[in-house]
Amino acid sequence: MRSGLLILAIITGYILLRGWPEQWHTILRIFVAASLLVVAFFFWGHCDRPTSTLAKSARKPRAFDYLSISLAVLLLECFFLLFLSVVPEKSERFAISIDEILRSSSNYEKGKSRIESQGMNEGSNGEDGSLVTSNWLFSGPGRRSLNKNKKVRPSNRPEVYLFPSTPNDARILLDRERFLRNFTLATYREESWLPLSLIPKTLLAKNKAINFEINSNRPKISYEISHQVKRGGPTLAITIPNLISIKQPSLRETSPDTFRLSPNTIRDKEYRYEATSIPFDFNDTLKIIPGTPPAPEYMELPDNPKLQGKIKTLAATFGAPTRESLLSLRRYLHENYRYSLDPAMPSEAEPIDSFLFETKTGYCTHFATATVLLARAMGIPARIAFGWSGGRYFSAPNLFVFRAREAHAWAEIYLKNRGWVIFETTPAVREEGSPSLAGINEISPYLANFGDDEVIPKQDTTPLLKASFWIGSTLFILLIGALIIKRSPTPASEHNLVSEVLPNSPNYLSAFRRASQAHGNPMPSGRTLRAHLKSIAAPDFATDLLQYHYAVLYGDQPRDRLIEKKLVHQLRKWEKEAT
Fold first, then answer.
1. pLDDT in tens, 308-337
2. Is-contact 367 284, C-beta < 8 A?
3. Phi, psi angles (nearest 5°) of residue 144
4. Percentages of the chain per state (helix, strand, coil), in multiples of 5
5. How far apart are CA 320 and CA 325, in angstroms?
6. What is residue 483's predicted lDDT score, i.e. its pLDDT?
7. Where are the domains of the chain?
8. Angle of helix 323-336 relative to helix 364-377, nearest 10 degrees?
9. How far apart are CA 412 and CA 46, in angstroms?
10. HSE of 174 in the Cβ direction (CA atoms, 13 Å)?
11. CA distance 232 to 229
C-alpha cells in the first residue's frame, strides 16, 4: 500500500512538472508536486516496527519538537521550489550549449556541406537544416521515407504559433481547414520522397518585404508566425500556402516553395516574421484543368513496373482529370482505407503498394503519397507537402497553436491559371491535425515558451522566487535558533535511568530493567546488577545473565550477539509472566 502511494505520487509529480494542467502557474505545479513527494516519502518511510530497546525515547514529544519538524518540512518545500524553478532552465541551456559545440564540429559541417552540394532539401529536421522539432514526420537527411510497420507516437509539444493580424483574418482561418507549409518534395524513389533538385537562389527584400506573384482574386490574410530557432543549422520559413509576401531581409530558396530563413543573430530568441497569403485549396475550385508540369519529376511514377501498372489501372477507374473524378478519388480513399498511426505493413512489401492494395491502413504520409501517384497517373502534375494542419485557436490572444502531433503531409496538384492547389484526402477524423478551439480560461502555451510582452503579458516569477528565498532563509534561521536554545530534556524518573555504573547500557540490561519493573521491583539508580538480583526473586537464568554481564563489563570477553539475543528473549518471557 505504501509503495503504491509512493509510485502514484511520483507519477502525479512527473505529470505536473511536465506542464499539465496548462492553466496552472509553473510555481503552483512545482509546489504541488514537491508537496506530494514529501508526503509520499513520509508515509512510505513510516511503518510499524518492533519497539527498539536501543534507542527508546526518555520522554514524550512536545510542541517544541513538532515545531522543529514543521520548520524542517517547510524548509524542504522551499528548497524544492527554488531547485525546480531554477535548475531545469539552467540545465536546458547547458545542454543546448553542449549540443551547439558538438554540432559545430568539423564532421557536422562536412556533412551539412555535402547535403547542400547535392541539392537536397534543407527543409527537414536534423542535419538537413530545418526547424528542430519533436515532429514525428520530419526525420532523415533530405528525404522522407514511408513508414512500414513502426508505430509512431506524436508528442504534444507546441511548435508553431500563428497570430492573425485582424479579427477578420482569424475568422477566415476559422471557417476553413488550416495548413502551414514547411517544404515540398517531388520525386518518389526507393520508398522515399526526395526534393526537386534546383540551383538555390537568394531572394532579397524590397521595402522590407519579399513579394511573390499570385493570380487570385480571393481574400488575402495577414498574419505573424513565431517558432523556435533551429540550433546548429538553418531554419525554414513556415507559411500558409499561396504566399504573397513575407517580411524578411532575405530568403534562400532551396527547392520549390521551400525557403531557408536568414540566421537569427539573437541567442535563444524565436523567429518571428509577418507574412501575407491567400488561403486556397481544392474545395475552392469549380473547374479542374491540369497545367503544364513545372518539371518532369511532377509526373513520375515509381520505378517498379508492376507497381506502375497497378497504380495506372486503379487511376483509370476514376476517369479523365476532372473535378468529379478527383472527388471520386477522395471518396474512394475515405471509404476504403483506414487511418492509423500503426500501419503494421509487411517488412518485405513496398509501402505504397501495401497501403493501396493490401493493408489499406496508414496515416497522412501514406494517404498523400497515394493521392500524388494516382493524380499523376490520371495526368495531373502533383507533389507532396509537409507542415502542420488544424491548430488550436485561443481567442483571448488571437492565436493559433500548432503542436508536434499536428504535423501533417498532404498532396498538392498543379492546375492551369491556379498554380499549386492543396488536395487533401486524409480522413478528417484522425489522431493528428484536427482543428480545435481552446476553452475560455485556457492559457496559451506561447506564454510558457516565449512570453512576449507585446502579445501576452508575461508573468514575472522573480518576486515569487525572491519570496521563496527569504521564506526559506527565515525558516532555516528559526530552525537553527530553535536547536541552539533547545532545553535539555527533563530527567526521567529514577527507575527509567540507566545505571550510572554501566555506561552505554546494552540491550539485555535494558530488558532486565523493564522486566524487573514489571515484577514490581524497579532497579534504583546506582545499584549494581548483582546487588539487585540478590534483593528480588531472581529468575532461573539469573546466573547466566550475571556471569555474562561481568565477563563483558570487567573481563576481556567480547560481546556475543547470540548470547545477548538469547538473554533478551528470556527476559521478555520473564516480563510477560508478570502480566
1. 999 999 999 999 999 999 999 999 999 999
2. no
3. -125, 110
4. 40, 15, 45
5. 7
6. 66
7. 2-47+54-102+465-485, 106-449, 494-577
8. 140
9. 64
10. 18
11. 9
